[in-house]
Hints:
The chain is α/β, with parallel strands linked by helices. It has one domain (13-142): Hypothetical protein MTH538 (Rossmann fold, 3-Layer(aba) Sandwich), CATH 3.40.50.9200. The protein has helices at residues 25-35, 57-69, 78-83, 85-97, 116-121, 130-142; strands at residues 13-17, 42-44, 73-77, 102-105, 124-126. It has a five-stranded parallel beta sheet, with helices on both faces. Helix 2 (57-69) packs across helix 4. The N and C termini lie far apart (51 Å).
Amino acid sequence: MEAVPVTAENNPIRLFVTHLYAPDxxxxxxxEYLEAQPNFFYANLATPDKPPRSREREAIxxxxxxxxxxxxxxxxxxxxxxxxxxxIEYQCLYAQSCDKPLVGLExxxxxxxxPAKLREMADEVVPWNGREMADAxxxxxxxxxxxxxDVIEFKLD
Length: 157
């Protein structure tokens, strides 16, 4: 029987990207960056476009727990943390209680830094670079070795 690679098309990494149940450019940008990575397969378990019928706090928390439970890794958008720290912090704390690793993303296109509390909770914080994002997700979700060697070719004249 042939061994299945750790991450493959038939064995995608199950990830949850933090959200606030509202359209957000940073949320969608995560997937643009990940889609551009060769041989990176994932399943997004977050459903920000399907909020619970009841907007009560406990209904929202229950829905978020449902989305996070089967995830292997949580991608935390620090820009959303800056907008609503309570909801994003709840997602992070629940993920930690389930032993899910957190990959924090720096705010996109600003000079703002990752809030100290979020940096403290995250297992790893990365910039908006598709390769670094995919590698951090692989390391945290599946403990894959992501060491790469860049080859530079040049001619001697």
